[in-house]
Amino acid sequence: MAASLVRRDKKSTAAHLKADLNWTDNSSGVRQLQELLDSVLNPEKPAADTEALDWCKCLIAGGEGFEEFCKTVRSYDNATLCGLVWTANFVAYRCRTCGISPCMSLCAECFNNGDHTGHDFNMFRSQAGGACDCGDSNVMRETGFCNRHRLRTGENVPSVPRDLLLMSEMVLPRFIICIIQYLRDGYTEPDTSTERDLQKVLQQLEPQISFLEELTKMGGAMRTVLTKILTNQQIFKDLSVGQEENVYAKKNYEKYLSALKNSGLVSVEEKAQSGAAEPTRGAEAGALGLLGAEAPASPDESNKEEDQDGGQSVGQRKRVKLSSTAKDPSIMDSLKHKCFLEELLFWTIKYEFPQKMVTFLLNMLPDQDYKITFTKTFVQHYAFIMKTLMKSQESDTMSNRIVHISVQLFSNEELARHVTEECQLLDIMVTVLLYMMESCLIKSELQDEENSRHVVVNCSEPLLKNNTYWPLVSDFINILSHQSVAKKFLEDHSLLMLWMSFVSFFQGMNLNKRELSEHVEFESQTYYAAFAAELEACAQPMWGLLTHCKVKETQEYTKTVVRYCLETLQIWFDAIGFVDEPAPNQVTFHLPLHRYYAMFLSKAVKCQGLDLDSLLPHQEMLMKIMVHPLQIQASLSEIHSNMWVRNGLQIKGQAMTYVQSHFCNSMIDPDIFLLQVCASRLDPDYFISSVFERFKVVDLLTMASVHQNAVLDGEQERPMLEGALTFLVILSSLRIHLGMADDEILRAEMVSQLCMNDRTHSSLLDLIPENPNPKSGIVPGSCSFEEMLSAVADFKAPVFEPGGSMQQGMYTPKEEVWEKEFDPIMVVLRTVYRRDVQSAMDRYSAFLKQSGMHTTGNPWPPYKERTPLHPCYKGLDRLLHCKTLHIVIFTLLYKIWLDHSNMSEHVLCMVLYLIELGLDNQVQEDKEDEEPCIEEHCHDSWFPGTNLLSNLHHVINYVRVRVPETAPEVKREKDPPPSTSADASNFGQNSRRLTGNWRENVREAQVFSLVAERRRKFQEIINRSSTEASQVVRPKSSSTRWVPPGTPPQLVTEILEIRESMLSLLIKLHQKLSAKQNSLSATWLEDMETNSHAHGDGITAIERILTKAATRSRQSKRSIQEICGKVSPPVAPKKNSPTDKNTMDKDERRQRARERQQKLLAEFASRQKSFMETAMDVESPDAEAAMDLGASEVMESEVLYDCVICGQSGPSTEDRPTGLVVLLQASSVLGHRCKSDETKKLPTTDDEHIYPADTCGAAHDVRLALMQRFFKDSSCLQSVSIGWEGGVYVQTCGHTLHIDCHKSYMVSLRNDQVLQGFSVDKGEFTCPLCRQFANSVLPCRPGRSTEVVSWHMPTNKKTAVLVKEVEDLQEQLGLFPVSTTTESNLSKEMESVIKDIKNTTQRKYMDYGKNPGSPDNDFLFMYSVARTNLELELVHRGGNLCSGGASAAAKRSCLNQLFHVLAMHMRLYSIDSAYNPWTRLTQVAQRRDDCLDDERPEVPMLFRDCPSLLIIFVLTMPQPLRKGAE
What we know:
Elements: H1 2-7, H2 10-21, H3 27-40, H4 51-61, H5 66-74, E1 85-86, E2 91-95, H6 108-112, E3 121-125, E4 130-131, H7 147-150, H8 166-186, H9 198-216, H10 220-231, H11 233-240, H12 247-261, H13 268-275, H14 282-289, H15 299-308, H16 314-325, H17 340-350, H18 355-363, H19 368-380, H20 382-391, H21 395-410, H22 413-423, H23 425-438, E5 441-443, E6 455-457, H24 462-465, H25 470-480, H26 483-491, H27 493-504, E7 512-513, H28 526-546, H29 555-576, E8 586-587, H30 592-607, H31 619-640, H32 649-659, H33 668-681, H34 684-694, H35 714-733, H36 742-756, H37 761-767, H38 785-792, E9 793-796, E10 799-800, E11 806-807, E12 810-813, H39 815-820, H40 824-829, H41 834-851, H42 883-897, H43 905-920, H44 948-951, E13 956-964, H45 968-972, E14 986-987, H46 998-1005, E15 1007-1008, H47 1010-1021, H48 1026-1029, E16 1051-1060, H49 1062-1074, H50 1084-1088, H51 1098-1112, H52 1114-1127, H53 1138-1175, H54 1181-1196, E17 1201-1202, E18 1209-1210, E19 1218-1227, H55 1256-1270, H56 1273-1276, E20 1287-1298, H57 1299-1311, E21 1325-1326, E22 1333-1334, E23 1336-1339, ...
Parallel strand pairs: 14-15
Antiparallel strand pairs: 1-4, 2-3, 5-6, 7-8, 9-12, 10-11, 13-16, 17-18, 19-20, 19-23, 21-22
Helix pairs in contact: 2-3, 2-4, 4-5, 4-8, 8-9, 8-10, 8-17, 9-18, 14-16, 18-21, 20-21, 20-23, 21-25, 22-23, 23-27, 25-28, 27-29, 28-30, 29-30, 30-33, 31-33, 31-35, 34-47, 35-43, 36-38, 42-43, 42-49, 43-51, 49-51, 49-52, 51-52, 53-54, 59-62, 60-62, 60-64
């Protein structure tokens, strides 16, 4: 019967069967149709056969043409939703004004037919695909519906005739089961030998699935039929198994059951593996092997696991947690299907979401019954979806397709709430997320690497690297945007705890360990994955939850989250073995638990009116909480100071990402806020000292001129000190979470970005952090982005450039913004590149000059008054009013005044900023909170109280300092020290470096140590035992962590006479900055009252501070007037023209520079005097007159240098040397000189040579080789010169600069991202003034331009006596020009330039002796450098060093400085008197016992090279080199 039907015409057969089915007794028609379908839809036929599809179309149409049937069915479409589905790269619209869900989107037709005038909308290219939400009031407001869907046209559609879709209801179930049979048959288990070929199966099925998709487009009537078929359990039951006799169907059904077996979250294989996990794999095995066993299979298995990890098996611990909280056991179990829809989705997942299937399933969504059932089915398969995704090779594509579906389901709040209640959606999502992350856990190495029990995600795993978790996290964020779902989540405590344990997986991930020896071989890029994971998996859900905790009614939710944050943090601290000190040289930028805690605290105080103290833990916990965020802030400074340079560029990438606009509000802002909370509640002295210890600058904070830092190099100290002070300023002044309204935050963010650079609208929108201000402007009561932008910026219209291209329109800050709102602290906080801070300052300077507010010199960052603190955070002001900070401020002011090393303008700027903040934010004196003044608090003797205003005028008389024995203070204090007052104490000496009898010294000298004070307070607060509390340093902080190898130098106690107050130091700094002795008169306060503006330089800042101090305290005013009166006695007013004033300033600067050098020159003069007494007849009156003349010339003719970087003029000193900009080059030019004047020809035959034998280089090589055949090697190396080939030529442009300014300049070049034509890492740079290429700096020796010494004085001593005196003096090599007993900055730089000279040429041009690397080779090389440069200078000057020649070359000669450097180096060599050239030259008779029989003789004097001998004598004589009088 079926065969005859198949052979007949399809249309007529379909019409006949339809007529039979319309009869009352239609059993015959049903039977015939079933038989026909059995034949047509036989799954054993190849799927590519289109005959079956043609039959289905005809049967469904019931004899009509299929196109006409489609039109007829569409006429009965009753859908009120658009539901148009699109795939990736489709252009769609999103209107934030109309949207309820952030994921809402519209197709172009619905958008254009709706009214969105003036709305906040954008057109976008879809990334994953989507569907139009027009008509869905759960996702968007009805006012945004298009004309068609607003009218609800579907309500007036007539009902569908019964017979129209009769055939569809009969045929489609068989068609769908046929597709399912094909899918079952095509699936092969992945672990079998047959390779999966899913694409081939899908390709064959494409026509059938396209047909289903076509059916869905017929409208609501057909979708209703499909929904009934897909969701009908009875039909599925009847058709799923297949007929008994059908072996093919049976086999496919078994395949289906086999595939189902492993569909649970924990598959059969994994359950089997969990018992056989190798015990040697530790925590990782625990996490992977025991991925999700619901409970231990047996007590034996449980015990086995406990033994494996010491009772703390990661897998077991998590497994127990999960099984106890997962309310729905079906999450774990294998799936069971009850309808076609469930199995279709199952195969869609198995085949990794083919696009056609996804589109078909989504096209059905406008049917509400289908939507509810499908959503439940999707949730039921959720764990299986994620499991498949993790194994997929094409996870990116699959992720997009998953989100394409889920975003349509979970954006609807009503539906999301429904499945949350009925299907435990939240439990499933959190559980699946946990299982997903557990697959890539590793043991944390943070803190206690060996004993840590904490586990973190491994950022190098594909799961994180490829963002495979993205679809799941995206869904979770989506459902948390619904208030009803979020509240359910916040009310479920077990779920919250589970979520916190998930967040803890990211706590401390991607740990960085500082490389100390060699550069890291492979730069890991895992930080991309780490930052993306924290932002998406932790921060975004946090912001979602925070949006529902904005009113007082939600207080309990916040309290619960805070409580669980603290509990989880405590678990974390215990797991990593943390007590109170972070492990050195480690940093992680990922602390999501800290940030959750911080943000919920902020919201609780800001929006819910909760008392901060009720949410804070005890003091010990607060101390622990502050450590790791503080470590990050210190590490940022370390990274910018190049301390992490061996870790490669990726560490700088992390530091930049941490503050970048998309991350800052979820990372650095919560960290700073948390530190502000800790600072407001902890002891301020403890907090301040913690900051300086973390920034490693404790050793620098001493009033002694010399200190030793055990953990920082010299060039790192200044940037680290600047970083510590800048951090304290940010901490004290930032108000983002401390009282600023959202509008104020948005304004501050916008101003800071605009001040760095002009911005386009789109770039500004991207740079402003999204939270806590959504940029959409739909939040009630908030100012919109556009309104704020127009308030702070002017728009510069687009302009056409000459080439025809158009420059985009830009926004630039208004003038009043520069004047009143420019906040350099906010700019520093938001700067990714350091050059942006300079850019902001340059733009600010240009504005001030243009407006006439500040026209001379460079302005300082302006001081900006802060909005008042929220009452809960008032304790933060105590930071500015604590003795420790005041000691630091006093010490730094003193060091800056005395020009100590590593002090900078930035340091002074930040110190002044802190003082001004303290004056503007006074603390109410609370006697109960005031710390009792007891003798043990050794720092109490510095200042009487904690108030900055009263401490400003307090005078410090004497200070004890602990300094190395070689420090200048020790030498100057030879006499018994003056009696010390009660103010005597020392500050900032790190206790770790002190010697064994230190405790006795502490009791005697009252030495104050930041570290000791901080630890003492820590131990007091946590009530440690008395024996432990008495220890200054805990045993855990072993000295091996900080002290470098070798015994630290002996420290001695010295007493400095200070007699200064902070006010007196400020006034002296004012004089120093203005370069005027009388910069402040005694009556200047009366004149300044109206002129305390915020714009200007350091002079203005000091004046502003002094004015504020005088206004707020009578005592301060009296002190200021008294100090000004003492420092500058009253003088009659004198009018000066601007020209006279400039001349006078310059003269004064020179005078002050001379005065500063008198102390150093006096010491040098005394040495010179002692030398003169030994070298001449002291009774000669002529000599005495000459000595007096020489002393007078010393004062009058000292050499002053102008630094081309800072512009200051002054002499070169040992502490702050000046240097010549030089270029060191290897040159073989001299070696090519020939005796003959014949013209050189290129060689044309083998016999000719390009290098003839009569060249200078060849002649000297032959000479040295000949000497070495007959004479002693060391003697030969003093008898000739080298450098004819590969000699080092030293050239200069003639410009000078301070060595420390040069180092800062090099640091700025390293940080500059612009591509340069030279290698900064090799020391190359361009002269800051003339831009000439250079690669080193040659230090200038301190002293005078002309020196009058004994060698030019008449003497009546015999020649033999003078020769003997010279020999005796040669025993004291090293006294001139620099003492070798103390290592000054000058000697360090001289050693540095010697290294540069050696590195300039190749080793083969330095080692001519038989023992490579011997001191003899070094000695030869040194004086040969002098010879090479003299010879080349002769060439430049036309053959005469004294007259004529090239004048420009003479001006730019650096021979004087070069000879001093070489002399200093050569005088370090001790020459045996028997072989001393001077002895050889001046001795009367040749001694026969010079050499032993087995040694070669010395080179006779007459064989030696005369210029070489002369240079050796000049460079080794114990006498300062001088420039000859011309």
